[in-house]
Amino acid sequence: MSLKTPKVFCIGMHKTGTSSMGTAMTHLGYKVMSNWGMYSSDIEGQIFYVAQECLHLFDAFEDHPWAFIYPYLDKQCPNSKFILTTRNTESWYASVLRFFDTRTTPMRRWIYGDEAGSPINNKSVYVERFERHQQEVGEYFRDRSSDLLVMDLSEGQCWEKMCAFLNTNVPSMPFPHANKSTRHQLHQELVV
Length: 192
What we know:
Helices cover 44% and strands 8% of the residues. The protein has helices spanning 18-27, 43-55, 70-76, 89-100, 106-112, 123-140, 158-166, 183-191, and strands spanning 8-10, 32-33, 60-61, 81-85, 148-151.
């Protein structure tokens, strides 16, 4: 499969529909790179090296660390498209709390700080980082509305918005909704 251009980066934070976006981009023919499962404690030292290697292999990217290195990606891949998935803050935090519970990872410590890897008892830290990310992305692309699409998947018409932004045909299938938080699916997601 040859790679598509321009590259597409889904830069929403986890639990904003990033997996659904990855599935949708796959249906549109993109070769998608998701969260690469970086569990090393030296994320800062590896992140750009690994990102550079992946940029040559994929044409669409979703989840972490992509959401937090968008300025670097923008410089490395001129004319790329960026999609910021978002949702209501309280709904987002409730989903994060259900999904991550007390577990932590080096990636979440990198995102939220060493003391706040788990969302338990760290609501203010998580919410502040989530809202700051939305604001920073908006400011970064303030004068480049043709390069950024902001989508709340709960608002519907996802295919129409996404396909208009990417200048591609709307599929005849329903928009995918991956990682809905049922207990069974939650267990499956954590095992994978």
